[in-house]
Amino acid sequence: MLMLKRKMLDKLIAWKQKAGGREALLIEGARRVGKSTIVEEFGRTQYKSYILIDFTRLPRDVRDIFENQRDDFDTFFMLLSAYYRKRLYERESLIIFDEVQRYPAARELIKYLVADGRYDYVETGSLISIKRNVANIVIPSEERKMDMGPLDFEEFCWAMGEELLAETIRKSFERLVPLPDALHKRAMRLWREYLLVGGMPQAVADYVEQRDFGEVDSIKRGILQLYSDDIGKFANGDAGRVRGIFAQIPGQLSKHEKRFTLASVDKGARSREYDSAFFWLEDARLVNLCRNSTDPLVGLGLYEDNDSFKCYMADTGLLVSQAFADRETTPDDVYRDILFDKLSLNEGMLVENAVAQQFRANGRKLYFFSRSDRADATKTMEIDFLIVREYDNAAMKPRISPIEVKSTKRYGVSSLDKFRKRYAQRLGKEYVLHPRQLEVDGERIKLPLYMAHCL
């Protein structure tokens, strides 16, 4: 498969330099987002040697080493080195525990391996917090966590050979100067391709080489089937509820009111009964939950309403295929219509999902604002996203930035106007993400959708 350039590699290199062997790194992420690939590349390019231990296929001999030699690291390392035919060099070798949740005892051993200090350790895993994966083990405090998701739009541009355009988009955002029309059109075309292909590495690599949406759709459906199998295997008693929620995501997002309503899954559903199912989906990194922050202050999480949330899919390309899960394949004309902006499907759901995906890739937790007042329409408003950014007119102190996402060129911004009027003292810049050119209107900045990853 084509080797894709990922931002995670730079983060790994920075971690290595800063940690100096004093901590292990745990990379969490959904299956098939490229965790194993990137840590192998890290081992290959940044160390004299590395060993990757895949706990999904743990050979009996390796299990015996972990079980019988945990108190004798000299023998432990000698046997590992011999089994994998890799010489280990003190402070110049990396040991990778791949899919470590499959063998929690190895994760517990990290504390002592780090204290031993001979080598560096990176763990990868999904469903790390599920009870069965932490039962009866002491979680090592010497473990730093990092999230890894699908490719963001900038990484997609790199994969497509558009590194210079990606660089120009960044500079355009920083200077708040629009791109020339020809480049704007090219960037919008790439953005639409990204909506369809998404950021799962296997789908992106195939699209780069073949430019065939049918093939890409087949790959994405394979990934969705893998997730469905995982739900059956690992969600225990919640499997039915988890599947019900996952199947409903496209329907919920296609509504004007995008908040998740449990009645669509089960008419008699109570939120308490579904809490663990949503936790499972979020922990597996299959969804991005966006919670209502009822009082928009810089500490958005202090006022989150856990009963009012939107549920996005972690990858927009998978959302496209999931929207047509009732058919064996997604029709080619659907992909063509989205690409050429002649869509019958609700494009708003794809665009908003993709923006949520960019924010999560930047490490942001997702929040929105919603207030309804039947007695006073001036107090009813819905803001798609709230983020915190430094504000240049307040000595770079953090302020709330409300963000509205628009999928069409013609739109209204009444909610944004009401929000500014009510909360002006708390706000910094406000943003509208739309398909049009960049435009600055005082404190309101209208950005093309392909700049979402810059926020």
Automatic annotation (TrEMBL):
Transmembrane segments: none annotated. This is ATPase. It comes from the Bacteria. Residues 229-407 form the DUF4143 domain. It holds the Pfam family AAA_14. Residues 22-157 form the AAA domain. InterPro entries: AAA_14, DUF4143, P-loop_NTPase. Coiled coil: none annotated.
